TrEMBL record:
SUPFAM superfamilies reported for this sequence: Winged helix' DNA-binding domain (SSF46785)
Domain HTH gntR-type: 17-85
Keywords attached to this entry: DNA-binding, Transcription, Transcription regulation
Protein name stated in the entry: GntR family transcriptional regulator
Matching Gene3D superfamilies: Winged helix-like DNA-binding domain superfamily/Winged helix DNA-binding domain
Organism name: Streptomyces katrae
InterPro entries: Tscrpt_reg_HTH_GntR (IPR000524), WH-like_DNA-bd_sf (IPR036388), WH_DNA-bd_sf (IPR036390)
């Protein structure tokens, strides 16, 4: 069973993880990697259950686990979304990684790179 919008695939063969766990893990992986960006609106429980051929309770259980982990948030009747806080952390981590790679290419030592980053952060946060 595959979801066309989220590209979720549920393996129903013997020995595979429970469907709710497969769903939870795939959405979590996509949210953490940025494939599902912060603010992305997820399908309704009923809609995703129908699309995947699962019981609504199975999808609801996966959504509850994702919400408990802080990866998604339910906004009442507006729907369920990928949580913004995770997106901000992910974006900051990507920027830090890009900086570290650039500093390394420039020949900076680890201490020099850390000092440059710390000075930039200090300057930005004291300037406001």
């Amino acid at each position: 069973m595959t979801s066309t919008n989220l590209r979720i695939r549920i393996d129903g063969s013997a020995g595979s993880a429970a469907p709710y766990e497969q769903l939870r893990a795939q959405i979590a992986d996509r949210a953490r990697s940025g494939a599902l960006p912060a603010g992305y609106k997820l399908p309704t429980v009923r809609g995703l259950a129908e699309e995947l051929g699962l019981a609504a309770n199975t999808v609801a259980k996966a959504y509850r686990a994702l919400e408990a982990d802080g990866l998604i948030e339910t906004r009442g009747r507006n729907g369920t979304f990928v949580a913004a806080a995770e997106g901000s952390s992910r974006e900051a981590a990507a920027a830090a990684q890009a900086f570290a790679e650039r500093a390394h290419r420039l020949g900076l030592t680890e201490a020099e790179a850390v000092a440059a980053a710390a000075e930039a952060v200090r300057a930005r946060y004291t300037a406001t």
